[in-house]
Amino acid sequence: MNARTETREAAGTNLIAMPKQGPARNEGTALKPEWFETVDVNLSAADRRVATLSARRSVKKQWQAAWLVKAIECIDLTTLAGDDTPGRVERLCAKARHPLRDDLVAALGLTGRRLTTGAVCVYPNMVATAVKALDGSGVPVASVATGFPAGLTPLRTRLEEIRMAVADGAAEIDIVIARAQVLTGDWPALYDEVRQMREACGEAHMKAILATGDLKTLTNVYRASMVAMMAGADFIKTSTGMEGVNATLPVSLVMIRALRDYLDYSGQVVGFKPAGGIRTAKDALAWLILIKEELGRDWLEPELFRFGASGLLADIERQLEHFVTGRYSSHDRHGMA
Q1: Cα separations (Å) of 265 from 32, 113, 311?
Q2: What is the mean pLDDT of residues 39-49?
Q3: pLDDT reported for residue 23
Q4: What is the pLDDT of residue 58?
Q5: Which is the catalytic residue, given 168, 237, 261, 283?
Q6: Domain assignment present for 19
Q7: By residue range, what is the domain housing residue 251?
Q8: Active site residue 273
Q9: What is the DSSP secondary structure assignment for residue 332, as one 8-state letter?
């Protein structure tokens, strides 16, 4: 992996200095295979790097509580079930608007602070319901699209699905790439499709789901990440949550290093979203630590970092209740929808 950005070890120093006004849209670049075709990722080295995270970094007590509150703000609260109903989506949106009980908010000293999840993520046919339920909250609606999760419908159908979701009010679109184009190394085809999807999104931000569990190697993950960013992805996302293997720390490390290299080459900022299998507060802390160490504190904001999750918020709320009361409650006290 390339690691061209200077690493600064001084405490409190970010690896990458963010613009003061926040990230702009990623406009993309021309397809430049020379940026990635010579890169080969060492699996053992990636495994060793992420294995050090829990050993070197640990947050406890009030600091852990603060990190978990930050995690809440970065969750794309998600329902992508075949039996989704408008009522379920409305209840999920209510939870996104008010993710912690009032007594926990007060005990944590958060009264008066706006605390919501980063977004609510639904299927395209539920976008209008979610937009109405979130009206006035400031919480954006994200919609999966482009034949999610396989991405194997005709391109014209995938593009129309994006346009329909945007027309219904989706502010963010989570597209899926065609895995075959990565596995065969057809980078021009991958670039062209993602570029057309970016254009179909209009003003909506686009998250490119790589479905990394289907890409076979970390080298493929790196190269697919670079192509998606060149094509204009505002975020790169690990998984649909429906592959055999979803978000893992080694995969996330490779995508983050690609993100850093893309910034170094192009000067453009891209966000990161791990998704699939992230269910516990402990999981969330591991990813937050990875982001903090690799990218710096400025990336720990919903504009640049999201968790794709459905059950994660329940465990975070349970852990925060334990911090406040010293007792663990049962999971059924923290339903989502």
Answers
A1: 11, 38, 37
A2: 94
A3: 61
A4: 77
A5: 237
A6: no
A7: 33-333
A8: yes
A9: G
